[in-house]
Design a protein that fits this description.
By secondary structure, this protein is α+β, with helices and mostly antiparallel strands. It contains one helix and ten strands, in the order αββββββββββ. It is globular and about 70 Å long.
Length: about 140
């Protein structure tokens, strides 16, 4: 029988199988890790044309939060699970500092979240949970 190393007395076929398996598995693992990282951006901010709603996507979590500015400043937060949350914000901040405008009729998507901009407001969701932000009516679900 042929041996790969006289000291170890291991059959030559064992190392060859291991080498072939590693040659297949390592590039596959790198491809999966790279595509998972490429799916998310660092942080993304967008506004709708009325400039009264600004949203921020954060991949850590992941989390989507949108602020509706005006006389009653509200913040809507949608995390990785559960229903969306709505908070009153006591802030004098003015909207909006983002150059990324989600025009009416357009859809934004990142990670598990999707938002649709319309003249009536903004609707964002993750699976069956989300929120709707209008000028007069707001809803979390």
């Amino acid at each position: 029988m042929a041996y790969s190393n006289e000291r170890s007395k291991k059959p030559l076929g064992t190392n060859e199988r291991l080498r072939k398996t590693a040659a297949f598995v390592l590039p596959l693992a790198l491809l999966i890790a790279t595509s998972a990282r490429a799916q998310f951006v660092e942080e993304e901010v967008f506004v709708i044309p009325s400039m009264m709603i600004e949203c921020t996507f954060r991949p850590a979590g992941p989390e989507l939060s949108c602020d509706r500015f005006g006389p009653r400043h509200l913040r809507f937060v949608l995390g990785p699970s559960g229903v969306a949350q709505m908070f009153n914000v006591a802030a004098d901040d003015e909207c909006c500092g983002a150059d990324n405008v989600l025009d009416f009729g357009m859809t934004w998507s990142q990670g598990p979240f999707t938002c649709h901009s319309a003249r009536s407001g903004l609707i964002c969701s993750r699976e069956e949970h989300g929120f709707s932000i209008g000028k007069k009516v707001v809803m979390v679900y």
